[in-house]
Here is the input.
Amino acid sequence: MIDITKELDGKALRALQLKQRESWLYTGLITVPAAAGGADGATVQTVSVNSEADFLCFDMMGSYTTLILTAGIAPIIDDGVCHTSIKIRDQSGGFDMFEDFIPTNLVLTPGRERRATIVGAPAGLTVEPSHMLYQPMRFVHLFSANNNIQIEARNDSDTPNYIRIAFHGVKIRRQG
Here is the structure.
């Protein structure tokens, strides 16, 4: 039987721990333009992995809006239907994390960000705000230092929608 206390080297473990720290990478607010002329609105945004360390991602979470243009009293409403999809790419090797665009409601669950007011609605017409708890999606990948995480987003609604994404993991400094 192995005595784990004899196998673990406290100094080596401490040295390894000093080279790592928990970290978050954020996209900020991604504005996905409205669809026009029969084509989806599209945008590309990158998140930089800085030069100090590789980033070992464990999971991701985020939020998205579900806005659509209508001809009713309120021209822009939150209809609760997911109009956006995303594709994530590790630019260091051109590696697509998803083979195709994935609807954001499947990736960022339960990330729907309900709008507290309806744009253009008469005064006093509101909906309940979100009050949601973010649930991380398991997303394990090692992004190398000096690299970019590319998020490509599409929107089939005729009004802009918004996405935010956070990647959670550990920064691992290189030996030396």
About this structure: The chain has three helices and twelve strands. The first strand starts at residue 20 and ends at 26. The first helix runs from residue 4 to 7. The chain has a mean pLDDT of 82.
